[in-house]
Amino acid sequence: MEKCPSTLIKQGDDSGWTPLHIAAHIGNEEFVKLLLENDSSSAYLKNEASLSALHIAAKKGNVNVMKELTTACPDIYELLNESNQSALHVAAESGERAAVEFFLKRPEFNGLINEQDKQGNTPMHLAAINGYYGIVSQMARCSVVNTNTMNIKGSTTMDIVLSGKLDFQRKEALRMEGARPSLMELLKKAKKADNSKPESADTETAAVELGNEGMPDSTLDFMKQRSVSDSTFVVALIATVTFTAAFTVPGGYKSQDGADEGSALLSKKTSFQIFLIANSAAFGLSLASVFSHFTASNMILDFIHRKKFVARAPHSTSFSTFAMLLAFILGTYTVVPHNMGITVAVIVCWCFFGSYIISLLQLLKSSLSLLVSSSIKKQKR
């Protein structure tokens, strides 16, 4: 490399790709560092698509390469492509959250956050246009971002979000961060409302044919709130029942004087011991679900953390229901005399809930798979 002339390092192929561009694309951090040590000016070269090495690294989410480039050339972030887009624009447009986070965490890049391209789009606009709502939420939490910047079409980020298929909670999270529709969009909606005619029959037909896609947002929001309310009621009921069962155990307590006074009569039975474990699990899981619901409704938390608690609640509710069912069957089996008829009855009860148990096991399997895959992704990053 020391004998390699500078002209060769800067020489590009038919598409204008230099060795540094290729190294940035594949994420070869060591080779990028070696090239920059030999000739740092090569970092400012652009290919035929008007992309610098920093643009290319940001597009691929190669954060370590981005660190090397910005360290060797502190002003490289000012480079723009033919659409007047910075590397942050490209990262947001490509959905690379790690690359976006790289720019958001460093104060020296604050000037890029609200920068507009030829179409007037900020990085936040581009993330919303391409459906990367996680990046939209990520940028909305940045203290210097202007969530109400309009592009040349007069649209704010919120206009783009509202026009897309974004769930109610994400929209509310953006509103909490100060994002608002533009005046033009509000006027369009007002005009559309004035010109609209009642089409209840058509709406119902569309709802049947298309599912949730045919329903108004207000109806979907009501259904979501009703579902949360019902779920909270169920877990509260489970918590009450299991708490009561813990102190009114099957078989009762010993009333005779002695060291065992007040202890459970059937405490030495295996079925009774498993009953206690299942009952305790149901109580704990129901409390976890209640906690998740209350935490998710806490508007102080950001959207990402609230979303995690919302996702946990149904799992806790399902498993607490299963544990309560198991505790009930074991409690019944413990106190009722053992014979073939009772055993068959218990098996039949389990058969009724066979499909439910299988679905729970599949849910557990998918949850574990998701957890493992997310852990692998984090390790790769």
Automatic annotation (TrEMBL):
Membrane topology of this protein: Multi-pass membrane protein
Stretches assigned to the PGG domain: 231-335
SMART domains: ANK
ANK repeat spans: 15-47
Gene Ontology terms: cellular component: plasma membrane
PROSITE patterns: ANK_REP_REGION, ANK_REPEAT
Keyword annotations of the record: ANK repeat, Membrane, Repeat, Transmembrane, Transmembrane helix
Pfam families linked: Ank (PF00023), Ank_2 (PF12796), PGG (PF13962)
Record InterPro entries: Ankyrin_rpt, Ankyrin_rpt-contain_sf, PGG_dom
Membrane-spanning ranges: 233-253, 273-296, 317-336, 342-364
Keyword Ligase: no
Subcellular location: Membrane
Listed name of the protein: PGG domain-containing protein
Originating organism: Lithocarpus litseifolius
